[in-house]
Amino acid sequence: GDIADGLARGVEGIGATVSDIFFEPVVRLGVTGLSRAGKTVFITSLVANLLDRGRMPQLVAASSGSILSAYLQPQPDVTVPRFDYETHLAALTGDTPHWPESTRAVAQLRLSFRVQPGGLIGAISGPRTVHLDIVDYPGEWLLDLALLDKSYADWSAETLARAKSRDFADGLHAALRGADASARLDEPVAKTLAQVFTTYLQAARAQGFSDCTPGRFLLPGELEGSPVLTFAPLPRPAETPRGSLWREMERRYEAYKREVVKPFFRDHFSRIDRQIVLVDALGAIHAGPKAVEDLRYAMREILSAFRPGRNAWLSQILHGRRVERILFAATKADHLHHRQHGRLTAIMEALLRDAKDRADFAGARTAAMSVAAYRATVEETLTHEGETLDCVRGTLLDSGKQAAFYPGALPEDPARILAAARSGQEAWLDADYRIMRFAPARLTLKPGEGPPHIRLDKAAEFLIGDRLT
Ligand code: GDP
User: Fold this and answer.
1) Residue limits of CATH 3.40.50.300 in the chain
2) Residue 299: Cβ within 10 Å count
3) 281 alpha carbon to ligand 1 midpoint, in Å?
4) Do the Cβ atoms of 340 and 390 come closer than 8 Å?
5) Disulfide check for 208: which of 24, 291, 434, 443 has CB 3.0–4.6 Å away?
6) Could you tell me which InterPro entries the record lists for this protein (predicted)?
7) What's the fold here for domain 20-137+268-376+442-467?
């Protein structure tokens, strides 16, 4: 009624909404990235560090003491799998530390804070509770948004054009040559084509390529083997009679959009307030120029999901709601000596600018950073043939041996990486980038100390800092 309205206006006048004061505010933080980008490790370490707040100096609410306590709570979305925080943390911090199992589908975790707000509000209201709902989901699923605007014919043509020059696509090409798209659908043929196509997508991912739609072919979850995942791109035949392989694949592609893609965007994506996109930029650089170019393309696609008006259907679902902040983070920065972190961040910034040129995020704040959610290395400077090398040292994942490692020097000017990527060349001409996989280090954490990281606190400050003070 009038009183509530008047109160609402008054409260807005002092910079808060009614719900902030009368209810417990909820911030939904989306964590995404392509598979192996580091989502699981990121969430696990973020939560561990937020619970203890022992290593979060750049999160102002933690260092200023306005977070009085932090604790895990049952999430309100009871049908969404819970992010298995305890198991993942035990994997990382146990006696034989190992990396946890990666994200395969959507998962959620609720972390709640008792916060003492400053200023006038704080004086009136005293401590209050803020809930952080962390939503973990595969970036592959975001790429599917682009499918909503694409017909089966367009998607097939684009996918096959990309596969054309890839040597690992031989199996796919052979299978397609043997298939007649205008012939009557034969289920075993459809199944084989879908399997061959899935194998191709997996190979593409393994080679460092990012754009591998449809996302559920790589991470099917409970849909594995269902008709909605039993299709493949086909060259368009002259005739597409009713009941033909082409028509049936087209029907399944449309069902995938309707039954798989849309529900994900409606039920999960549309409710996100803040978003971090994790990117294994070092992995792509190691894989070569083509993988970087593909990453650039995938990042554009991923980020365009956050552009208001990008898709008419999505706009309708969002009702004007939008993600307020998007952080673009290069992960696994502990593979580099900190002297190179600025260069990695510059590459991320260049990729972000490139994506922003196409997608204006209208109101969303964006930033790029280099982080390591779980630091597995220490720095070491070695002298090799009269040259000093800034290395990192850690336990090798394969052999369990300790080794110091020099990954190669990233260029000072990120444009050089992007230009080489655009040129379509096979290998970097002037540099050699290597990558090593380290095992998580064995830790003895003091009480109240979170796991070691690089700039996780800075990332948290950007993403949620304003909601915790
Ligand atoms: P997800 O598929 O996005 O959930 O990726 P994960 O979080 O499972 O990470 C994939 C792999 O990347 C891990 O198994 C680790 O090998 C590596 N990784 C992730 N985060 C870090 C990090 O902060 N430092 C290092 N050195 N490796 C990491």
Assistant:
1) 20-137+268-376+442-467
2) 23
3) 12
4) yes
5) 291
6) YcjX-like
7) Rossmann fold (3.40.50)
Q: Whose CA is nearest to atom 2 of ligand 1?
A: 36
Ligand 1 centroid from CA 54, angstroms: 22
Which residues line the pocket of ligand 1, CB cutoff 6 A? 33, 35-41, 99, 102-103, 331-332, 334-335, 372-374, 376, 437-438
Q: Whose CA is nearest to atom 15 of ligand 1?
A: 99
Q: Nearest-5° angle of CA 269, CA 273, CA 275?
A: 75
**Among 32, 36, 103, 457, residue to substitute to test ligand 1 (most atoms within 8 Å of Cβ):** 36
Which atom from ligand 1 is nearest to the alpha carbon of 138? 3
Atom of ligand 1 nearest to the CA of 374: 23
* CA–CA dist 353, 340 (Å, integer): 20
In order along its 469 residues, the chain shows pLDDT tens digits of 444 444 444 444 444 444 455 578 999 999 999 889 999 999 999 999 999 878 899 999 999 999 999 999 999 999 999 999 999 999 999 999 999 999 888 999 999 999 998 777 777 778 999 999 999 999 988 889 889 989 999 999 999 999 998 889 999 999 999 999 999 999 999 999 999 999 999 999 888 787 789 999 998 888 888 999 999 999 999 999 999 999 999 999 999 999 999 999 999 999 999 999 999 999 999 989 988 998 888 888 888 888 877 788 888 888 888 899 999 999 999 999 999 999 999 999 999 888 877 666 666 889 999 999 999 999 999 988 888 999 999 999 999 999 998 988 998 899 999 999 999 888 887 778 888 899 999 888 888 888 999 999 999 999 999 999 8
Q: Which residues pair with 403 in a beta bridge?
A: 394
- For the record, the structure tokens of 132 come out as 């952080």
**How far is the centre of ligand 1, averaged over its atoms, from the C-alpha of 425 (Å)?**
28
- Whole-angstrom CA distances from 225 to 194, 195, 219, 222 are 10, 10, 12, 9
67-73/107-115 β-pairing: antiparallel
Mutate to test the pocket of ligand 1, among 43, 280, 332 (most ligand atoms within 8 A of CB): 332
